[in-house]
Write a structure and sequence with these properties.
Length: about 160
Amino acid sequence: METGTTGETDRPAWAALPGGLLSLRRLLLVVWTAVLASATALPLGLFAGAGWAAFGAIWLLPLVWGWVLLGRNWRSWRYAERADDLLISRGVLWREETVVPYGRMQLVEVTSGPLERRFGLASVQLHTAAAATDAKIPGLAPDEAQRLRDRLAELGEARSAGL
């Protein structure tokens, strides 16, 4: 008795996120680390002495650690458009893969906050009937986000499950 797949499997064509999201998140990490280092070093330097101000450098460790983790996290994000659904994969330690059937999508939004616009980024938010199955693809180029929104809306209408 044979079990499993014997023929060729239909592997999804994964698309990675552009590098702008990584640049944005690393910039935010540097800014917040500088704020925390200043908030630590300044009072220590004023009230305890200049030597104590060096403890502000302790924030370099989270900066280096965060820099590496942000890179790994960014590399883990990817998505794939298949015939009947959209796959979204993310996570380093805890991998998460979301499957959103086109027929279950109710709303597809493209959003872009001030920082995202500054870095030329947009996010695609997918809403389904169940709130727990909403999905988001952050850090796309605006043209790709609009293309994906239009394509997903078109496929969603074509494969509507009649909710």
